[in-house]
Amino acid sequence: MSPCLRLLRPTAKVSSRCGATRRFLSVPAAELRFGQPLHETHPHLLKAGEVTPGITALEYFERRSKLAKELPPNSIAVLAANDLKYASGAVFYKFHQDPDFRYLTGFLEQDALAIIEKTDEHEHAFHLYVRPKDARREAWEGPRSGVEAAEDVFNADITGSIDDLPKILPEIVKRSKTVYTDLPQNRISKNFASRYLAAAEPARTGGIAKVFRDNEASIRPLRPLLNELRVIKSEAEIVNMRRAGQHSGRAITDAMRQSFSYEKDLDSFLDYWFKQDLCDGPAYVPVVAGGINANTIHYVSNDMALKPDELVLVDAGASYGRVRHGTLRARGSPGLSRSRLLEKGMVVTVEPGIYVPDDEKWPKWARGIGMRIEDSVMVDEESPYVLTTEAVKEIVDIEALRGSETKL
């Protein structure tokens, strides 16, 4: 007989309830199959109580509660997960979750809908509609968490199949005075649920836009509310960002010890580094720009040969905990005023740079130089906390590294 494990998740159904109780679900260990890593299946990645690396179920609940406090009574916030993107035919890209959806739910699978429903001044309900379990599809595509896990693992108060949205969503919208959402998005997908959320399914339902129109819902943007929530990082978020920054800084420092013949070789070296130590891989498409290529701020071709003794600009970083953050990327939320004063817990980039065109009006020795020195910095009470300190920047340190180079 297979041993049984108990899924431990703090359950707190509505914001008016004090504290958090625990619910237990006994499951045969051999049957534990979810669409993302959990402590029960990946104890080397997550601690007990965490939904994603470093972030507990309780923190996700608190995030939803903070959003609910900003909503008026009888209103809803509606968010959609990303859908799978295809390169060509059946060839798909690696899936990345919508960052706002991940921030509120911790659910990392495609084709899902989350709703935060503010029923009165003190209570809210968390809806999560996901792909149901499907043995045939899972044999090809990998496991799905399913509807039961939406409640038992991700602590949703109300759950259901994403396929039932045309029946479920109109009733929820009908009883809501205001809808906060950034849907429909201008996206075209092979997936019915995604087409429905994008208002691209007129033949069958008319999509989510028609639901809003039919119920004369007052639509307001959700992103400004989420920007305010996300701009101040929690202690757990800072720990994750520090880990990504530390690993990324070490990767770039190690790269400085080497010599590379091609931009792509350096790109591959960093890619290998970013997939070690339980990191997820590159946080974004890296810039590896030799010589004059560094004058293109977001140069990502990374396909030129490197000339002897020319400078190479690298903008790259690792992702940890599925958060798209790296050594040189920790920018504030879009839409926030640039005149806003910095507060403790905010993270910004400090990135002085110089870019000199290959032009005769500039000294010959300086032509074509492109350089920036970036750090991710957390605002603290007394002094800044540099998250990327492992990436060496002082001339003496860089020269010391170059003195022990190896040719790749």
TrEMBL record:
The answer, when asked if Metal-binding is one of the entry's keywords, is yes
Example GO CC term: the record gives: nucleus
Q: Output the InterPro entries linked to this UniProt entry.
A: Aminopep_P_N, Creatin/AminoP/Spt16_N, Creatinase/aminopeptidase-like, Pept_M24, X-Pro_dipept-like
Molecular function GO labels:
aminopeptidase activity; manganese ion binding; metalloaminopeptidase activity
Instruction: Give a short account of what the protein does.
Output: Catalyzes the removal of a penultimate prolyl residue from the N-termini of peptides.
UniProt similarity note: Belongs to the peptidase M24B family.
Q: What does the record give as cofactor? A: Mn(2+)
Q: Which UniProt keywords apply?
A: Aminopeptidase, Hydrolase, Manganese, Metal-binding, Metalloprotease, Protease
Q: What is its EC number?
A: 3.4.11.9
- Give the main EC class: hydrolase
> Which PANTHER family does the annotation name?
XAA-PRO AMINOPEPTIDASE 3 (PTHR43226:SF4)
Instruction: Please write the reaction equations for the catalytic activity of this protein.
Output: Release of any N-terminal amino acid, including proline, that is linked to proline, even from a dipeptide or tripeptide
On whether Phosphoprotein is a keyword of this UniProt record, the answer is no
GO terms for biological process, alphabetical: protein processing; protein stabilization; proteolysis
- Name listed for the protein in its UniProt record: Xaa-Pro aminopeptidase
Organism field: Phaeosphaeria nodorum (strain SN15 / ATCC MYA-4574 / FGSC 10173) (Glume blotch fungus)
- Domain called Aminopeptidase P N-terminal: residue spans: 55-190
